[in-house]
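Annotated sample (chain length 155).
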Amino acid sequence: MRQFSPLLCWTAVVVATTAGCGAPATTPTDQGQPAVFPVTITRTGGIAGFGDVLVVAGDGLVSVTRKGHTPRRCQLTPAAVQRLTTSASTVTWSRITPANTRASFPDDMVTTMSSPAGGPVRLEDPQAGATGQLFLELLNDLNDGPSASHTCRPV
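Output written by the structure step:
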């Protein structure tokens, strides 16, 4: 029988111990499914030529990038975090049929949401359910800037 060298055994222990260090930021849930957050909301097109991207983290930190504006961040109010977290967890992300994200006449504005768990799905799609409407409300609330928002305070 062959014997393994102590160096080989220690190398195996070190590799096994550190293997998780490079894990992605989205960790799986207890059920083995990808985490719901961060949720990315994208609005493109329209007569106004939108180019908005919101990235909402599970702790309520929102990164806002709008075409022609300086990127910014804000923190959702605790009530808004609770509503969005509860709503986003009800979406059957794994069963979503990815949406067509290209603008076309007469629908020239496309607003979608996606998650590490699934998507993209248009916010108005029945697959998004009430969550689509809630994220659309957040997008519209942040549209007029940080001082006008009722749900997100500048960080």
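Annotation: Residues 8 and 14 are 10 Å apart (CA to CA).
Annotation: Helices lie at 6-18, 78-89, 129-142.
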